């Protein structure tokens, strides 16, 4: 009796194989190059395995609404723009005040372990205990008296009444905190200073005295996680120029260029598939099922 090496698969194994191949075909969409209207490039990514692994825990592209979100220990903040040339992004905290809407705000915080720090925007703390000239953090005065005209401007916004202030309130309840520092918990300590809210201004626009024309948002800087460690800069540039998306392969998080139909360690022009451990460790769970099924099929085929 000669061993049957032909794939006479057991019917059940055949079904397992067949269904797992179906799930493989409909597996996760590859890394995307946009989220909403924002172009997404390294080190940002639209999901697990995309962009830099250091950014992944903090950045999400919401599946339902297509919003790009930064999450920290104090909340989730929509990202409204990213400048890849200056490594700066702008977030708009939903509970921040603007000229049209003023509201009580919780502390704004960043995670120390994350690649994000405060960038060049101006915080205007609103409805603080007067006189704000005596507000201090660790003994140093907080408010910049040379910018108090910004307080006078923003206090012309009728929305100040929402914060319990009278119309045209005295400006000694307002504090321009710039550059701002985060406390040991990584937070802009609004509550420690006893201020009700804040507006953050990225740009004063054309007419500096018109707070309706200011661009509101919090500017953050990010540092290129991993770029120096992995010599990723050149490889990633080539990958993006070839239409690919830079990503990483867990568990080692080595660089992967995610192309339309394959992954490679260089760029999408050169088809050199990414193979390290592809048969098991870096294969997706459905792919593992396929390999398991094939192995089992082979085993039973020989045994039969
Ligand atoms: C390529 O890599 C991405 C991200 O690491 C992953 O989601 C995807 O499944 C991989 N695709 C292939 C064909 O291996």
From TrEMBL:
Question: Is Cell membrane given among the entry's keywords?
Answer: no
Quote any Pfam family the record assigns: WAK_assoc
Keyword vocabulary terms for this entry: Glycoprotein, Signal
Domain called Wall-associated receptor kinase C-terminal: residue spans: 230-261
Q: Where in the cell is it found?
A: Membrane
- Membrane topology of the entry: Single-pass membrane protein
User: Is Glycoprotein given among the entry's keywords?
Assistant: yes
EC number(s): the record gives: 2.7.11.1
Cellular component terms (Gene Ontology) = membrane
Ranges of residues in domain Wall-associated receptor kinase galacturonan-binding:
31-91
- Its name, as the record gives it, is non-specific serine/threonine protein kinase
**Which organism does this record belong to?**
Liquidambar formosana
């Amino acid at each position: 009796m000669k061993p049957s090496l032909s794939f006479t698969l057991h019917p059940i194994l055949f079904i397992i194989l067949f269904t797992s191949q179906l799930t493989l075909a409909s597996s996760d969409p590859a890394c995307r190059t946009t989220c909403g209207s924002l172009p997404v490039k390294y080190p940002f990514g639209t999901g697990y395995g995309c962009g830099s692994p250091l950014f992944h825990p903090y950045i999400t592209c919401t599946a339902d609404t297509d919003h790009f979100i930064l999450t920290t220990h104090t909340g989730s903040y929509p990202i409204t723009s990213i400048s890849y040339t200056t490594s700066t992004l702008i977030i708009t905290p939903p509970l921040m005040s603007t000229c049209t809407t003023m509201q009580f705000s919780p502390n704004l915080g960043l995670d120390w372990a994350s690649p994000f720090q405060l960038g060049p925007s101006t915080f205007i703390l609103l409805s603080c205990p007067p006189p704000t000239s005596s507000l201090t953090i660790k003994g140093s005065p907080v408010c910049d008296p040379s910018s108090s005209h910004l307080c006078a401007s923003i206090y012309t916004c009728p929305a100040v009444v929402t914060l319990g202030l009278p119309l045209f309130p005295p400006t000694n309840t307002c504090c321009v905190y710039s550059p701002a520092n985060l406390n040991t918990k990584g937070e802009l300590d609004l509550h420690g200073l006893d201020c009700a809210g804040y507006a953050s201004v990225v740009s004063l626009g054309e007419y500096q005295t018109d707070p309706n024309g200011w661009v509101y948002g919090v500017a953050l800087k990010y540092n290129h996680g991993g770029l120096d460690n992995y010599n990723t800069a050149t490889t990633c540039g080539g990958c993006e120029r070839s239409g690919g998306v830079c990503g990483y392969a867990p568990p080692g998080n080595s660089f992967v260029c995610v192309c339309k139909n394959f992954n490679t360690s260089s760029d999408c022009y050169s088809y050199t598939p990414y193979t390290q451990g592809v048969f098991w460790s870096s294969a997706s769970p459905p792919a593992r099922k396929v390999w398991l099924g094939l192995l089992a099929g082979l085993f039973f085929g020989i045994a039969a």
